[in-house]
Design brief:
Layout: E1 18-20, E2 28-30, E3 35-37, H1 41-49
Antiparallel strand pairs: 1-2, 2-3
Length: about 70
């Protein structure tokens, strides 16, 4: 059974281009599209183009601690 959409993480949180800014009014950024936003960049892209983000690239797997 697939997980409901509401419980999935937004794609930006798993994308290597996503970053958090110091701007309190635009705290989310996308290095690939070179912009900052008040909402997650993937949602901004979807609003502007009616498409899912085409620049998404998964973050590399993290090494376990220890």
């Amino acid at each position: 059974m697939a997980a409901p959409e509401a419980t999935k993480k937004p794609p930006c949180l798993n994308c290597k281009h996503y970053f958090i800014t110091w701007d309190q009014y635009k705290p989310h950024g996308c290095r690939s599209f070179r912009f900052k936003s008040a909402i997650l960049p993937c949602y901004d892209v979807q609003i502007a183009s009616n498409l899912n983000c085409l620049k998404f690239e998964a973050k590399p797997a993290r090494k376990p601690n220890g």
